[in-house]
Fold each of these.
Amino acid sequence: AFKYKKLNAVTKGCSDYVSSPYSLRVFQWNILSQALGQMNDNFVKCPDEALEWNSRKFRIIEEIVEYCPDIICLQEVDHFNFLKHVLGTQGYTGVFYPKPDSPCVYITGNNGPDGCAIFYRTNKFDVINIESRILEIWRVQSNQVALLANLRVKETDQEVCITTTHLKARQGAFLSTLRNEQGKDLLQFVSEHSGDRPVVICGDFNAEPVEPIYGTMLSDESLALGSAYADCDSSNKNSADREPPYTTWKIRDEGEVCHTIDYIFYKKGSLEVEAVLELPTGEEIGEDRVPSFSYPSDHFSLVCDFKMGSQKVQAS
Ligand code: NDP
Ligand code: CA
């Protein structure tokens, strides 16, 4: 049974909420691209109206701002301008990096390519630099990307390196090999740009904990990563066995798909996991699963509170 330390409730009204300079709340979510969700995914139990952008867009915003995160990492973003505009009113700014050949652009009525986005609280962080990468597989560019932001906490001068990615989808041994190769390139990319900053790497890895990439992420010697959800539970020695039971749960024509493929990895030692948001129960989700009127994406959001240090204190 999974027993997480639960997230502390945060006061409502995110726009002027200031979190502690020693805490870092990271929000991770594959929001489900509007073009793919409406035209490609074929969620057979989801009412068409629940996928209409004009109402779904506000449910996406609501899901994000209700947790007052410091950092927001999103995948399948095909309405970046809308998110930037609305999240801008709540104290965030952000960056976007599209997939080179997004499947969205081949869909009638699309709103451009989908990609990864990072938003951060402007009253908490200054940006140092932003880097992006088209992930390579055996030195050849793939159709998947990573986006990295080095940020500095204004009040403490503490720096952090935030990276998000969305790896190749679909099942199969070969695809799992491709994801593992993308993961190696991702780790190389983060190592190149993170310096000795605390590191968070989160995203939709499209891989269950049994896939090679999970072990690859946790065995990088210089980054020394742990998985935040797994490390918030001490019931089992094996990290893979401590992951949540699912991070996505949908019904397509082929049947029900329920698995854990989204993660928040972090550099152990430099950040400490304080709490995570629990996944909703099967009962809360409902028998038609997601997306639905209650949950705007087929993925659930992950939220983690980290404790971080201070450059200023360390220096004095
Ligand atoms: P991926 O294989 O990584 O998947 C692309 C998207 O499809 C992901 O966002 C993924 O969501 C979603 N997806 C996964 N499983 C299904 C499913 N069973 N039904 C519907 N959607 C699903 O794609 P690539 O970026 O590597 O691009 C390749 C794919 O894109 C090809 O399969 C092709 O169909 C399409 N494409 C078409 C082009 C064209 O029409 N000319 C050009 C370029 C791409 P999640 O990660 O949440 O699982
Ligand atoms: Ca998807």
Amino acid sequence: MKPDILFHPFQLKTLNLRNRIVMAPMTRSFSSNGVPGQNVAEYYTRRAAGEVGLILSEGTVIDRPSSSNDANVPHFYGEEALAGWQNVINSVHQAGGQMGPQIWHMGIMDNHHSGWTPSVPFEGPSEFNRPGFANGKAMTESDIADTIAAFGRAAADAKRLGFDCVELHGAHGYLIDQFFWEGTNKRQDQYGGNTIAARTRFAVDVIKEVRRQVGDELALIIRLSQWKPADFNNKLAKNPEELEQWLTPLADAGVDIFHCSQRRFWEAEFEGSDLNFAGWAKKVTGKPTITVGSIGLSGEFIAGFQGESSDPSSIDELLRRFDRGDFDLVAVGRPLIANPDWAKKIHEGRDAELKGFSRELLGQLV
Ligand code: FNR
Ligand code: 8K6
């Protein structure tokens, strides 16, 4: 099968994508004092010029305590940072690209593990169930209300600056995800509960507030994962029924696209079917989905940060699943760090020219 099938437009609300390739959100920490500069604008613009259909920004944090304590992670608030983002989106648009910010609150996952989180102490087999994480601060109802409002403000700013969509970071054990898990959300109020459906309340309120701020037309994506770092084996939804209980309230609240984070896109999510996470999310919600995870990577490099070579062999399997309609868009991470023109080279059959990813590349903005 030829990659051409990925090079068809995708239209949904404010999105008018030239193809199905998405740049996965990737933290790069090059924004001094939270302000994305000209170097960051040029980095994203090179991907737009390289024919990426949709660029999702690195996680960019909302205006609340402990949203991040890395001084080089970009903010999505404040005059200077927003002016920086205005420059980014103008430049990406000029190069023919489309882009949305991934808006983010780290919660307890900030560097000191002392941030806001649904509840402390944690229980259960959890990445967070470590001594260092005991210093977190359980959010009060007013902290929660403020945080929901801050997500809404960030989305409104994204719309005002002219971004084409917004992505909520609801994956990988950060704040929104901390509300989903039983081990990290022991709340007894309306934001907690014994079922996964009950624990979607925080995300649902964030989504509703974003919708209230931006209206119906701006495309809204949420990124979700079944895993958290260091706890890869404990899945959030154990079966399709739980998946439905988790995703349906989010879809009903106003999500347009589910971005389903997997480390390897070809891994089946549940027994009895080869559908991956994005495949199942599409099946249970009827919404478009984005898949991701080791696309175009090979060897040791797969689902790890090691390895040297980039080999598009897994692309055949990706195309087979895409052709079957399992998902609508495909996100690519590390290969796009190494090759700003990854999409263009795949389109033109110039795979042999692709460079491999290596950790050293993270020290610069290629
Ligand atoms: C990531 N990833 C990530 N995910 C996310 O939702 N927000 C983020 O800010 C980041 N940051 C980040 C930084 C770096 C350096 C890497 C390598 C990854 C995860 C990323 O979006 C993607 O899901 C994975 O990299 C898997 O895709 P690939 O690299 O196998 O194509
Ligand atoms: C400059 C130091 C950067 C260190 C790189 C690690 C980045 C961590 C990002 C975590 C996000 C989850 C990773 C997704 C899994 C991909 C395959 C393991």
